[in-house]
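Page 37, continued from 36.
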């Protein structure tokens, strides 16, 4: 019996033999796996007058996230049959967390949210049930004496980390004074109020970290991609050689594995392949980057 990879390679061969077509969709994502780039999204069917979601709609070459920005983008690639789509989905779902990447183009820029206490917001339940456990899992086996949670909210994740690693020195930054107060009420003493973009001003002079966590901040909570890149670069300067960075959150990540590599990081994890094809009508954590600073 042929294994998943053999079937995948055969499917890609059939797809490459097809003539290119152009598709329009309400939204498209880019999935990189197996040396190929695929388009996922809600494809518009002109005959039916409506859209339908395709887990894998096209095989593309030379397409970048910027080419898919906004709603109703058009993209050209080689069409994927329903039968080959099933083969590709099965193969990608079986991959390791560093063998596939989901890239979500910028569709719109949300206005800055004037949060109250984060643990009183509607998104918090998803963080508590799905995102925080994934971050804690990513940190397992990573030794650290000093950790920074950039965009720490009301300190809920930092409190869990401190509980697991009582000898570690845990620091947090948050721009919202209500969150800062709540975090300090949890007994977290190294909490700084301010914008993470001013990290160097907020943190103690010369302080460096073995691990830095971005649990939401470098997703679309920071509404400008350039600001996310600037925060990343500043944080890498505060990371010891061999130190680790975790990036995830409720919304889509601004950054890609290529961005992280250019910042001097080795990417160890990119996503949760088993979740890439879950129904977008219900929440599933798809993106989680784990990186290590190059020596």
């Amino acid at each position: 019996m042929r294994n998943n990879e053999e079937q995948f390679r055969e499917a890609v061969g059939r797809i490459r033999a097809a003539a290119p077509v152009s598709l329009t969709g309400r939204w498209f994502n880019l999935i990189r796996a197996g040396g190929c780039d695929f388009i996922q999204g809600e494809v518009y069917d002109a005959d039916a007058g409506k859209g339908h979601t395709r887990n894998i709609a096209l095989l593309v070459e030379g397409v970048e996230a910027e080419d898919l920005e906004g709603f109703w983008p058009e993209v050209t690639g080689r069409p994927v049959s329903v039968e080959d789509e099933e083969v590709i989905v099965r193969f990608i779902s079986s991959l390791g967390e560093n063998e596939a990447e989901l890239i979500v183009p910028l569709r719109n820029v949300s206005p800055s949210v004037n949060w109250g206490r984060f643990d009183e917001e509607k998104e918090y339940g998803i963080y508590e049930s799905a995102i925080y456990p994934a971050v804690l899992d990513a940190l397992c086996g990573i030794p650290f004496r000093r950790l920074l949670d950039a965009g720490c909210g009301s300190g809920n994740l930092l409190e869990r980390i401190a509980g697991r690693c009582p000898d570690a020195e845990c620091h947090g930054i948050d721009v919202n004074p209500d969150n800062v107060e709540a975090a300090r009420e949890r007994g977290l003493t190294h909490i700084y109020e301010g914008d993470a973009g001013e990290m160097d001003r907020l943190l103690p002079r010369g302080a460096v970290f073995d691990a830095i966590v971005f649990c939401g901040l470098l997703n679309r909570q920071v509404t400008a991609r350039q600001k996310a890149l600037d925060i990343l670069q500043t944080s890498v300067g505060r990371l010891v050689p061999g130190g680790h960075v975790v990036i995830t959150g409720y919304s889509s990540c601004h950054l890609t594995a290529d961005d992280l590599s250019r910042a001097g990081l080795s990417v160890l994890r990119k996503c949760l392949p088993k979740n890439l094809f879950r129904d977008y009508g219900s929440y599933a954590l798809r993106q989680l980057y784990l990186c290590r600073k190059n020596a």
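The first helix runs from residue 4 to 16. Flag for discussion at group meeting. The mean pLDDT is 93.
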